[in-house]
Predict the structure.
Amino acid sequence: MSITAAMPPAKERPRRPRTKRVSSLPAIKLSQLLPSHIDLRTPLKAVLVCEDCGTWVSITGMQSKVQKLVPHHAGKAYVDAARRCRSSNRRVEFDMTIPEWRLALTDAVKEASSRQSTAVLPKAFSPQTDRTLRARAERTPAGRLADWNAVLPRVADADKNRRAIPAGDAPTEGPAVPLDTLHPQPPTR
């Protein structure tokens, strides 16, 4: 899209919100949050999970005196109404250092991994299913061949009955029913 005289150029906007407002709610202390709800890997772009709306929100003013949550909306973008979260501009107190946060995060990961079950227990079978599976496992190739040979005469009888012409008059109208299997040949040139 090209810029025309009818469209004025966009005004340069500040990179960070620079509002002086601070929420009247008490400050969020990092030590009271779960270590997995804080991300301090890049300290100048720190983020945490908002206690009220549960969204990840960046912390502004990392190099100034007051650190606070960026103003944000509580609902999903383009789905819910644009409603400002009440924890917007809420102060954040850094009462733990980055190494302490990393240590707490590794402890939390170890604790969570120790809680997870490693053994997957199979679903119990019904007695009929158990008998069927055991019988299937005990069958040998010779046993399967004997079972197939026992069924073959009944299959041959069914095929013979299927090919037999029924007794009675032949249909008077319509084409004759072919009794032989048709094998189409490709056309010759």
Remarks:
- The longest strand covers residues 56-60.
